[in-house]
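Handoff note, outgoing to incoming analyst
You'll be picking up this chain. Sequence as last confirmed:
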Amino acid sequence: MRRTASIMLLALVLFPSLAGVVDSGSGHSLSSTQNLTPTANYGRDASLHLVTYDDDLYLFWSTNDPLQAPGVDHDILYKQYKGDSWGPSMVFTSDDTGSDFSPCSAIFQNKLYVVWQTNDPSISDGTDDDLVIRSFDGEVWGLVTEITLESDEYPDHDPQMIVHDKHLHVTWQGWDEKNSTEIIMCRSFNGETWSSIERPSQDLTENWSPRIASAGGILWLIWATYDPDISPSEDSEIVAKKMSEGTWSQHLVMLTNNTGEDDLPEVCTFNGKLYVAWRTNDAGLSSGEDWDIVMRWCDEAVWNEEVFELTPGDVGDDFWPRMSSSTERLVIAWQTTDSGISSGTDTDVVARWLDEERWGPIVEISPGDDERNDGGELLRDPVAICSFDGAFWVVWETNTSLSLSSDYDSWIMGRSISFTEETREEQNHLLIVMVGLLASALVAWVLWSSRSRSSRG
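Most recent structure output, in case you need it:
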């Protein structure tokens, strides 16, 4: 009996993969953490955005640090990562006289287009917040163009972009002066002219956090709304619409209809499906009374029935989900205060991935128990993620205080997560080989033991 146990133990030592195969089908590793903006900061670095263009990774952000950008307003900066190191910071909105926030980008007709929110009267009309856009061909940045109405006097913000059916589509949160409510606006660009502005949120009241995605040949618009006509419990819900033959459908898809708050949606396409994640405090969708991250997905215009919880059984708040995908997997990162999935009592950034229909474990991305507010429930995109060169880069806003106030100094940190590719077929083959070797060892031991007893008899 002791010899059998010894052989089993030896087999597990020699073949450790037999002791536990990763459910996600891949292992992972994290690069060292880097400070991407100065830690001795005299302002706030926020509104983070990552994009891959022309084999380089670009990081855009907004800052009011006078040592990084001229003046005392908020300006947008960017830097490039070429695969081995990050380059210097470059001022994207130089010589302006207003504040610039919320950069977002898309690749269209071989150019990098960047849209952002500004109240600078030199590049937009009036003193309210407007949306402007410019393109980059790899060498030169083009002229700035305003895409919101020049005659309005109300704020436009939170722009999002996607390319679909040979058009660049932009959506944002605007204001309906007639009904005094926030609405979702959209317009598209064919490379020469802009379409008229559409209002797909119709007569719904208080609409925010628009997201736009193209999946399975369908253009989807996702947003959060607070409208008593569609939510009897008078809480916020996540809704969706799709574009059909160039126009937005009148049919509103209710992704939630419950007694809790649902907001901060995020979208991503993976393997032809559209994935929508958001935060909720509805006990009917997630465990406990805290904020959790949940998800639904759509395959060929058919939505799955059950809401999937990414943070089951935790006891802290989870918020600001952000997603990116490659051909192999989808990775979602978010902030959490749950000490069960992160270190210490501060706010940390964690991630989880979907690989071949299986979810991997929750992994802590930001340094554990560093007594910093990594990410945090702040107002302007405190975390971003992007697939690049076989890995996923995650960046986040951090500071030296646990305060969630927006009036502190902060800087940007980042690191990448890489995966060791190993298909399920390879794992099964390896498992079969290991079991065969172990069986051979056991048979050999049984024969040897029998002969030993016979010789002694």
